[in-house]
Amino acid sequence: MVIAAWPVSQVFTFMGASNMNDVDQLSPVKQGLWFYGGVTTCHVRIVRHHTLYGTGNADDPPELAADHEVDCFYIRFDKPHTPAPWQDGGAALSLREAVFLAERKLGPVVSWVD
Predict the structure, then answer these.
(1) Long-range contacts from 55-63, C-beta under 8 angstroms, 24+ separation
(2) Residue 95 lies in a domain
(3) pTM over the 0.90 mark
(4) Rounded CA gap, 47 and 65, in Å?
(5) For 60-94, what is each residue's pLDDT tens digit?
């Protein structure tokens, strides 16, 4: 079965805050800085998790609606003046793909620390 990456922001709406709170507690496998508006330094982190959360929406195809027990990577980032500590940046099935998604979402300059 092929599972494509999709924005976690869409998944988050259906699956509830507690699952993403669990993800936020994980240690990053890669982290760095990005520049909000090209000026303000903000954090980005990629964490590895064992569950790729589905949408939970019965109208979606089963491969998108259901959770999958598979190693995956969630992109989390912060922005200035937002109430939530981490924003949803998407999910990927490989670290390489997660780095690509983060750089595409957050702009041309992401400075990775590790």
Answers:
(1) 55/10, 55/11, 55/13, 55/14, 55/15, 56/14, 56/15, 57/14, 63/1, 63/3
(2) no
(3) no
(4) 22
(5) 999 889 999 999 999 999 999 888 888 999 999 99
> Is-contact 52 65, C-beta < 8 A?
no
**Tens digits of per-residue pLDDT, 16-46?**
456 778 888 899 999 999 999 888 999 999 9
Query: Residue 62 sits in which domain range?
Result: 7-71
CA angle 52, 80, 35 (to 5 degrees): 80
Longest dimension (CA), the chain: 42
Q: Which two tokens stand for residue 1?
A: 């079965």
- Residue 71 · residue 47 · CB < 8 Å: no
- DSSP E strands in the chain: the ranges are 28-36, 40-52, 68-77, 87-92, 110-112
Number of domains observed in the structure of the chain: 1
Do 85 and 24 touch, CB atoms closer than 8 A? yes
